[in-house]
Amino acid sequence: MTVSVCVPEDVPELVKSAGGLFSEDAGRHDPRMDLGWPDREGAAYYAELVDDPDCLCLLAGGGHLIGRMRPPIDLRPGAVTAVLESMRVGPAHRRSGVGAELVAAFFDWAREKGANEITVTAYAANEGALAFYRAQGFRPFEVRLAREA
Question: What are the residues whose beta carbons fall under 8 Å from the beta carbon of 132, sequence distance 6 or more?
Fold first, then answer.
Protein backbone atom coordinates (compact mmCIF):
# COMPACT_ATOMS: atom_id res chain seq x y z
CA MET A 1 0.00 0.00 0.00
CA THR A 2 1.27 3.46 -0.86
CA VAL A 3 1.05 6.23 1.71
CA SER A 4 1.04 9.61 0.02
CA VAL A 5 1.32 13.15 1.32
CA CYS A 6 -1.73 15.16 0.33
CA VAL A 7 -1.64 17.95 -2.20
CA PRO A 8 -4.42 20.50 -2.68
CA GLU A 9 -6.10 18.31 -5.31
CA ASP A 10 -6.55 15.59 -2.64
CA VAL A 11 -8.77 17.73 -0.39
CA PRO A 12 -12.04 16.19 -1.70
CA GLU A 13 -10.72 12.72 -0.84
CA LEU A 14 -9.77 13.95 2.66
CA VAL A 15 -13.26 15.38 3.14
CA LYS A 16 -14.82 12.10 2.02
CA SER A 17 -12.68 10.07 4.41
CA ALA A 18 -13.35 12.49 7.27
CA GLY A 19 -17.07 12.18 6.60
CA GLY A 20 -16.71 8.42 6.88
CA LEU A 21 -14.85 8.78 10.17
CA PHE A 22 -17.47 11.12 11.56
CA SER A 23 -20.32 8.76 10.72
CA GLU A 24 -18.53 5.52 11.70
CA ASP A 25 -16.89 6.73 14.91
CA ALA A 26 -18.48 9.88 16.28
CA GLY A 27 -21.88 8.80 15.00
CA ARG A 28 -21.67 5.75 17.26
CA HIS A 29 -19.95 7.30 20.28
CA ASP A 30 -20.96 10.98 20.55
CA PRO A 31 -24.62 11.94 20.20
CA ARG A 32 -23.71 15.65 20.22
CA MET A 33 -21.22 15.50 17.34
CA ASP A 34 -22.17 17.53 14.27
CA LEU A 35 -21.98 14.79 11.65
CA GLY A 36 -22.56 17.29 8.84
CA TRP A 37 -19.41 19.28 9.65
CA PRO A 38 -17.16 17.58 7.06
CA ASP A 39 -19.56 18.39 4.22
CA ARG A 40 -20.03 22.01 5.33
CA GLU A 41 -16.60 22.97 6.69
CA GLY A 42 -14.21 20.21 5.67
CA ALA A 43 -13.01 21.57 2.34
CA ALA A 44 -11.77 24.85 3.83
CA TYR A 45 -10.38 23.19 6.96
CA TYR A 46 -8.41 20.47 5.15
CA ALA A 47 -7.21 22.84 2.41
CA GLU A 48 -5.64 24.97 5.14
CA LEU A 49 -4.00 21.92 6.74
CA VAL A 50 -2.56 20.67 3.44
CA ASP A 51 -0.73 24.00 3.06
CA ASP A 52 0.48 24.20 6.69
CA PRO A 53 4.09 23.01 7.22
CA ASP A 54 3.23 22.08 10.82
CA CYS A 55 0.51 19.69 9.65
CA LEU A 56 0.74 16.35 7.92
CA CYS A 57 -2.07 15.06 5.73
CA LEU A 58 -1.69 11.52 4.41
CA LEU A 59 -3.83 9.28 2.21
CA ALA A 60 -3.73 5.49 1.93
CA GLY A 61 -6.11 2.56 1.80
CA GLY A 62 -9.24 4.59 1.17
CA GLY A 63 -8.50 6.61 4.29
CA HIS A 64 -6.40 9.32 5.81
CA LEU A 65 -4.25 10.49 8.69
CA ILE A 66 -4.08 14.09 9.90
CA GLY A 67 -1.29 15.07 12.26
CA ARG A 68 -0.06 18.39 13.54
CA MET A 69 2.62 19.86 15.71
CA ARG A 70 1.57 21.74 18.82
CA PRO A 71 3.80 24.39 20.36
CA PRO A 72 4.89 23.83 23.96
CA ILE A 73 2.57 25.27 26.59
CA ASP A 74 3.66 27.06 29.76
CA LEU A 75 2.57 24.19 32.02
CA ARG A 76 4.65 21.63 30.07
CA PRO A 77 7.49 23.63 28.49
CA GLY A 78 9.58 20.53 27.76
CA ALA A 79 6.88 18.78 25.74
CA VAL A 80 7.17 19.15 21.96
CA THR A 81 3.98 17.40 20.96
CA ALA A 82 2.78 15.93 17.70
CA VAL A 83 -0.94 15.18 17.74
CA LEU A 84 -2.51 12.44 15.65
CA GLU A 85 -5.71 14.41 15.10
CA SER A 86 -7.68 12.15 12.80
CA MET A 87 -7.27 8.76 11.20
CA ARG A 88 -9.40 6.34 9.21
CA VAL A 89 -8.74 3.35 6.99
CA GLY A 90 -11.34 2.46 4.38
CA PRO A 91 -13.40 -0.65 5.19
CA ALA A 92 -11.92 -2.72 2.34
CA HIS A 93 -8.38 -2.14 3.66
CA ARG A 94 -8.83 -2.66 7.40
CA ARG A 95 -6.62 -5.19 9.15
CA SER A 96 -4.23 -5.14 6.19
CA GLY A 97 -1.47 -3.07 7.78
CA VAL A 98 -2.48 0.25 6.19
CA GLY A 99 -3.20 1.86 9.55
CA ALA A 100 0.21 0.85 10.88
CA GLU A 101 1.83 2.28 7.73
CA LEU A 102 0.01 5.59 8.17
CA VAL A 103 1.02 5.80 11.83
CA ALA A 104 4.65 4.88 11.05
CA ALA A 105 4.82 7.68 8.46
CA PHE A 106 3.36 10.08 11.03
CA PHE A 107 5.92 8.99 13.66
CA ASP A 108 8.76 9.62 11.21
CA TRP A 109 7.40 13.08 10.34
CA ALA A 110 6.90 13.94 14.02
CA ARG A 111 10.48 12.99 14.88
CA GLU A 112 11.79 15.06 11.95
CA LYS A 113 9.80 18.00 13.34
CA GLY A 114 11.45 17.57 16.73
CA ALA A 115 8.56 16.00 18.64
CA ASN A 116 9.43 14.26 21.88
CA GLU A 117 5.82 13.28 22.58
CA ILE A 118 3.05 11.97 20.32
CA THR A 119 -0.58 11.93 21.41
CA VAL A 120 -3.88 10.64 20.10
CA THR A 121 -7.43 10.80 21.42
CA ALA A 122 -10.02 8.08 20.93
CA TYR A 123 -13.49 7.45 22.27
CA ALA A 124 -13.33 5.29 25.41
CA ALA A 125 -16.06 3.04 23.97
CA ASN A 126 -14.15 2.47 20.71
CA GLU A 127 -12.30 -0.63 21.84
CA GLY A 128 -10.98 -1.36 18.35
CA ALA A 129 -9.31 2.04 18.06
CA LEU A 130 -7.88 1.79 21.56
CA ALA A 131 -6.42 -1.66 20.83
CA PHE A 132 -4.97 -0.40 17.54
CA TYR A 133 -3.31 2.61 19.16
CA ARG A 134 -1.91 0.47 21.98
CA ALA A 135 -0.44 -1.86 19.35
CA GLN A 136 1.30 1.22 17.86
CA GLY A 137 2.94 1.99 21.21
CA PHE A 138 0.50 4.50 22.68
CA ARG A 139 -0.22 4.18 26.39
CA PRO A 140 -2.86 5.89 28.54
CA PHE A 141 -1.65 9.23 29.88
CA GLU A 142 -4.73 11.24 30.85
CA VAL A 143 -8.38 10.31 31.19
CA ARG A 144 -11.16 12.78 30.42
CA LEU A 145 -14.41 12.07 32.25
CA ALA A 146 -17.77 13.50 31.26
CA ARG A 147 -21.33 13.46 32.60
CA GLU A 148 -24.69 14.90 31.76
CA ALA A 149 -25.31 18.37 33.24
Answer: 99
